[in-house]
Protein backbone atom coordinates (compact mmCIF):
# COMPACT_ATOMS: atom_id res chain seq x y z
CA UNK A 1 0.00 0.00 0.00
CA UNK A 2 1.35 3.38 -0.96
CA UNK A 3 1.01 6.12 1.60
CA UNK A 4 1.14 9.77 0.70
CA UNK A 5 2.80 12.42 2.84
CA UNK A 6 0.02 14.67 4.16
CA UNK A 7 2.13 16.88 6.42
CA UNK A 8 1.42 20.58 6.68
CA UNK A 9 -1.78 22.57 6.45
CA UNK A 10 -4.89 21.14 4.88
CA UNK A 11 -5.07 22.04 1.20
CA UNK A 12 -8.47 22.70 -0.29
CA UNK A 13 -9.92 23.60 -3.65
CA UNK A 14 -13.52 24.70 -4.18
CA UNK A 15 -15.78 22.62 -6.40
CA UNK A 16 -17.05 23.89 -9.72
CA UNK A 17 -19.54 26.52 -8.54
CA UNK A 18 -20.69 27.20 -12.10
CA UNK A 19 -22.78 24.06 -11.86
CA UNK A 20 -24.00 24.38 -8.28
CA UNK A 21 -23.98 26.56 -5.19
CA UNK A 22 -22.54 23.70 -3.15
CA UNK A 23 -19.76 25.15 -0.96
CA UNK A 24 -17.70 21.97 -0.63
CA UNK A 25 -13.97 21.45 -1.02
CA UNK A 26 -11.60 18.90 -2.45
CA UNK A 27 -9.30 18.33 0.53
CA UNK A 28 -6.16 16.52 1.57
CA UNK A 29 -7.02 14.34 4.60
CA UNK A 30 -5.11 15.02 7.80
CA UNK A 31 -6.53 12.37 10.13
CA UNK A 32 -4.60 9.10 10.32
CA UNK A 33 -5.22 5.57 11.54
CA UNK A 34 -2.30 5.98 13.94
CA UNK A 35 -4.29 8.63 15.80
CA UNK A 36 -7.66 6.88 15.60
CA UNK A 37 -8.67 5.58 19.03
CA UNK A 38 -11.19 2.76 18.64
CA UNK A 39 -11.43 -0.86 19.74
CA UNK A 40 -9.05 -3.39 18.21
CA UNK A 41 -12.00 -5.08 16.53
CA UNK A 42 -13.06 -1.88 14.74
CA UNK A 43 -9.48 -1.07 13.75
CA UNK A 44 -8.98 -4.57 12.35
CA UNK A 45 -12.20 -4.28 10.34
CA UNK A 46 -11.00 -0.98 8.88
CA UNK A 47 -7.60 -2.41 7.95
CA UNK A 48 -9.24 -5.46 6.40
CA UNK A 49 -11.44 -3.22 4.24
CA UNK A 50 -8.46 -1.17 3.09
CA UNK A 51 -6.62 -4.37 2.17
CA UNK A 52 -9.67 -5.64 0.29
CA UNK A 53 -9.94 -2.43 -1.73
CA UNK A 54 -6.19 -2.37 -2.42
CA UNK A 55 -6.34 -5.92 -3.74
CA UNK A 56 -9.62 -5.54 -5.64
CA UNK A 57 -8.31 -6.62 -9.04
CA UNK A 58 -6.48 -9.64 -7.67
CA UNK A 59 -9.33 -10.80 -5.42
CA UNK A 60 -12.30 -10.17 -7.69
CA UNK A 61 -10.96 -10.73 -11.18
CA UNK A 62 -8.15 -13.28 -10.77
CA UNK A 63 -9.26 -15.23 -7.70
CA UNK A 64 -12.97 -15.17 -8.62
CA UNK A 65 -14.34 -13.46 -5.51
CA UNK A 66 -16.77 -11.60 -7.77
CA UNK A 67 -18.61 -14.92 -8.26
CA UNK A 68 -19.38 -15.40 -4.56
CA UNK A 69 -19.45 -11.86 -3.12
CA UNK A 70 -22.96 -10.41 -3.45
CA UNK A 71 -21.59 -6.88 -3.11
CA UNK A 72 -20.07 -7.22 -6.56
CA UNK A 73 -16.87 -5.63 -5.32
CA UNK A 74 -18.42 -2.20 -4.86
CA UNK A 75 -16.32 0.15 -2.77
CA UNK A 76 -19.08 1.46 -0.52
CA UNK A 77 -18.46 1.63 3.23
CA UNK A 78 -20.86 2.52 6.05
CA UNK A 79 -19.56 3.57 9.47
CA UNK A 80 -22.37 3.72 12.01
CA UNK A 81 -22.80 4.47 15.69
CA UNK A 82 -23.64 7.22 18.14
CA UNK A 83 -22.35 10.76 17.53
CA UNK A 84 -18.84 11.34 18.83
CA UNK A 85 -17.59 7.78 18.39
CA UNK A 86 -15.00 8.55 15.71
CA UNK A 87 -16.85 7.76 12.47
CA UNK A 88 -15.91 10.93 10.61
CA UNK A 89 -12.34 10.74 11.90
CA UNK A 90 -12.11 7.15 10.67
CA UNK A 91 -13.53 8.01 7.24
CA UNK A 92 -10.84 10.64 6.74
CA UNK A 93 -8.15 8.31 8.10
CA UNK A 94 -9.13 5.66 5.55
CA UNK A 95 -8.66 8.19 2.76
CA UNK A 96 -5.25 9.22 4.08
CA UNK A 97 -4.17 5.60 4.43
CA UNK A 98 -5.07 5.05 0.77
CA UNK A 99 -3.38 8.21 -0.45
CA UNK A 100 -6.63 9.78 -1.67
CA UNK A 101 -8.09 13.26 -1.53
CA UNK A 102 -11.56 13.66 -0.03
CA UNK A 103 -14.80 15.45 -0.75
CA UNK A 104 -16.62 15.52 2.59
CA UNK A 105 -20.24 16.65 2.85
CA UNK A 106 -22.98 16.61 5.45
CA UNK A 107 -25.88 15.00 3.63
CA UNK A 108 -28.40 17.49 5.05
CA UNK A 109 -26.53 20.30 3.30
CA UNK A 110 -27.06 18.86 -0.17
CA UNK A 111 -30.79 18.31 0.32
CA UNK A 112 -32.82 21.00 -1.41
CA UNK A 113 -36.37 22.22 -0.86
CA UNK A 114 -36.71 22.39 -4.64
CA UNK A 115 -37.86 19.20 -6.39
CA UNK A 116 -35.10 17.69 -8.50
CA UNK A 117 -32.24 19.71 -7.04
CA UNK A 118 -31.00 17.09 -4.56
CA UNK A 119 -30.38 14.48 -7.30
CA UNK A 120 -28.49 17.13 -9.28
CA UNK A 121 -26.31 17.86 -6.25
CA UNK A 122 -25.57 14.16 -5.80
CA UNK A 123 -24.58 13.81 -9.46
CA UNK A 124 -22.27 16.82 -9.23
CA UNK A 125 -20.49 15.45 -6.17
CA UNK A 126 -19.85 12.09 -7.84
CA UNK A 127 -18.70 13.85 -11.00
CA UNK A 128 -16.17 15.89 -9.02
CA UNK A 129 -15.03 12.88 -6.99
CA UNK A 130 -14.41 10.95 -10.21
CA UNK A 131 -12.51 13.86 -11.78
CA UNK A 132 -10.34 14.38 -8.69
CA UNK A 133 -9.91 10.66 -7.90
CA UNK A 134 -11.22 11.55 -4.43
CA UNK A 135 -13.02 9.53 -1.80
CA UNK A 136 -16.57 10.82 -1.35
CA UNK A 137 -17.69 11.01 2.30
CA UNK A 138 -21.36 11.57 3.18
CA UNK A 139 -21.73 12.44 6.89
CA UNK A 140 -25.07 12.04 8.72
CA UNK A 141 -26.45 10.00 5.82
CA UNK A 142 -29.23 8.10 7.61
CA UNK A 143 -31.98 9.67 5.52
CA UNK A 144 -30.52 8.68 2.15
CA UNK A 145 -29.84 5.08 3.21
CA UNK A 146 -33.36 4.62 4.60
CA UNK A 147 -35.98 2.49 2.89
CA UNK A 148 -37.71 3.82 -0.19
CA UNK A 149 -41.39 4.68 0.21
CA UNK A 150 -43.83 1.97 -0.89
CA UNK A 151 -46.83 4.28 -1.03
CA UNK A 152 -46.15 7.35 -3.16
CA UNK A 153 -49.03 9.81 -2.83
CA UNK A 154 -47.33 13.21 -3.07
CA UNK A 155 -44.72 14.82 -5.26
CA UNK A 156 -42.40 14.96 -2.26
CA UNK A 157 -42.69 11.18 -1.87
CA UNK A 158 -41.72 10.73 -5.50
CA UNK A 159 -38.79 13.11 -5.00
CA UNK A 160 -37.53 11.07 -2.02
CA UNK A 161 -37.58 7.84 -4.01
CA UNK A 162 -36.01 9.51 -7.03
CA UNK A 163 -33.15 10.81 -4.90
CA UNK A 164 -32.45 7.35 -3.50
CA UNK A 165 -32.57 5.84 -6.99
CA UNK A 166 -30.09 8.43 -8.27
CA UNK A 167 -27.75 7.72 -5.36
CA UNK A 168 -27.89 3.98 -6.11
CA UNK A 169 -27.16 4.58 -9.78
CA UNK A 170 -24.24 6.88 -9.00
CA UNK A 171 -22.79 4.32 -6.59
CA UNK A 172 -22.98 1.68 -9.31
CA UNK A 173 -21.26 3.91 -11.86
CA UNK A 174 -18.56 5.24 -9.52
CA UNK A 175 -15.26 3.38 -9.67
CA UNK A 176 -13.93 5.14 -6.59
CA UNK A 177 -14.71 4.83 -2.88
CA UNK A 178 -17.81 6.15 -1.12
CA UNK A 179 -18.07 6.29 2.68
CA UNK A 180 -21.30 6.95 4.57
CA UNK A 181 -21.42 7.79 8.27
CA UNK A 182 -24.74 7.16 10.00
CA UNK A 183 -26.07 7.14 13.54
CA UNK A 184 -28.60 4.33 13.75
CA UNK A 185 -27.39 1.33 11.75
CA UNK A 186 -30.88 0.08 10.95
CA UNK A 187 -33.87 0.54 8.63
CA UNK A 188 -31.58 0.74 5.61
CA UNK A 189 -32.97 0.09 2.16
CA UNK A 190 -31.89 -3.45 1.12
CA UNK A 191 -30.58 -2.05 -2.18
CA UNK A 192 -28.03 0.02 -0.26
CA UNK A 193 -27.08 -2.88 2.00
CA UNK A 194 -26.30 -5.01 -1.05
CA UNK A 195 -23.80 -2.40 -2.22
CA UNK A 196 -21.98 -1.93 1.10
CA UNK A 197 -18.79 -3.99 1.38
CA UNK A 198 -18.14 -2.95 4.98
CA UNK A 199 -20.69 -2.07 7.66
CA UNK A 200 -18.71 -1.16 10.78
CA UNK A 201 -20.26 -0.31 14.14
CA UNK A 202 -18.58 2.35 16.31
CA UNK A 203 -19.30 2.26 20.05
CA UNK A 204 -18.73 4.84 22.76
CA UNK A 205 -15.10 4.76 23.92
CA UNK A 206 -14.15 2.79 27.00
CA UNK A 207 -12.61 4.48 30.04
CA UNK A 208 -9.09 3.68 28.81
CA UNK A 209 -9.94 4.96 25.33
CA UNK A 210 -11.32 8.20 26.76
CA UNK A 211 -8.11 8.63 28.74
CA UNK A 212 -6.05 8.07 25.57
CA UNK A 213 -8.12 10.64 23.68
CA UNK A 214 -7.59 13.22 26.41
CA UNK A 215 -3.86 12.55 26.46
CA UNK A 216 -3.64 13.10 22.72
CA UNK A 217 -5.52 16.37 23.03
CA UNK A 218 -3.35 17.57 25.91
CA UNK A 219 0.05 16.52 24.60
CA UNK A 220 -0.34 16.97 20.85
Automatic annotation (TrEMBL):
<dbReference type="Pfam" id="PF00004">
    <property type="entry name" value="AAA"/>
</dbReference>
<feature type="domain" description="AAA+ ATPase">
    <location>
        <begin position="73"/>
        <end position="207"/>
    </location>
</feature>
<dbReference type="GO" id="GO:0005524">
    <property type="term" value="F:ATP binding"/>
</dbReference>
<protein>
    <submittedName>
        <fullName>AAA ATPase</fullName>
    </submittedName>
</protein>
<dbReference type="InterPro" id="IPR003593">
    <property type="entry name" value="AAA+_ATPase"/>
</dbReference>
<dbReference type="InterPro" id="IPR027417">
    <property type="entry name" value="P-loop_NTPase"/>
</dbReference>
<dbReference type="InterPro" id="IPR003959">
    <property type="entry name" value="ATPase_AAA_core"/>
</dbReference>
<comment type="similarity">
    <text>Belongs to the AAA ATPase family.</text>
</comment>
<dbReference type="InterPro" id="IPR050221">
    <property type="entry name" value="26S_Proteasome_ATPase"/>
</dbReference>
<keyword id="KW-0547">Nucleotide-binding</keyword>
<dbReference type="GO" id="GO:0016887">
    <property type="term" value="F:ATP hydrolysis activity"/>
</dbReference>
<keyword id="KW-0067">ATP-binding</keyword>
